[in-house]
Amino acid sequence: MPLATTRRAGLVDQVIEQLRDAVTQGEWPIGQRIPTEPELAGQLGVGRNTVREAVRALAHTGLLEVRQGDGTYVRATSEVSGAIRRLCGSELREVLQVRRILEVEGARLAAVSRTEEEVTALRSLLERRNEELRERHWEEFARLDAEFHFAVVQSGHNTLLTEMYRGLTEVITASVAATSNVTPGREYLPEIGHEGLAEAIADGDADRAATEACGFLDELLARVERDED
Fold this sequence. Notes:
It is a single chain. By secondary structure, the protein is mainly alpha-helical. The chain has two domains: about 70 residues, Arc Repressor Mutant, subunit A; about 150 residues, GntR ligand-binding domain-like (Four Helix Bundle (Hemerythrin (Met), subunit A), Up-down Bundle). About 65% of the residues lie in helices and about 5% in strands. It has eleven helices and four strands. The strands form two sheets. Strands 1-2 form a two-stranded antiparallel ribbon. Helix 2 crosses helix 3 and helix 5 runs parallel beside helix 10.
């Protein structure tokens, strides 16, 4: 991965920005170990201490994870998502609560602002998602389900809400997987469908779209809370 040689002024900030760009633009995917400290120092034309400080800053935000004796790995594709991972950990209930806040209003906006092309795309995503569900391909199902929800929010054409939601991609996908995977002693079979949500958006019915979005998230939250009891 080519990295631009940094200027002398603000070296740490420049290295932070270049490393952040490499992660957010997909040069280093989640779970991949990034180049070693000496390699980065050589590529960037800076000292190892500068690289170390930049990596430490990005690890603090949750974007990177330093594993002593092993290396530094990509933990999230955005600092928002990294922070959520660090603060919430396995608190699935909290992630679902945040999803409900964002997705209910996202669905309402989508019903008002969506285009016909976006309705077609939503239906296509839903069909692919349901096919993966039928085949019990859990990983692909989780990815497509999260993609469907992002497409709903995106259809509302609120840039800030869309970017906030985009920053939560990893934890949202993880929450879908956690509420759909078959695990020993417990099944979270995702019988909750999204056809009603897609049709409410297609019909331009904002209240019904919000109700549909809130309904399935409330059901997932009820399941999680029962497990906590």
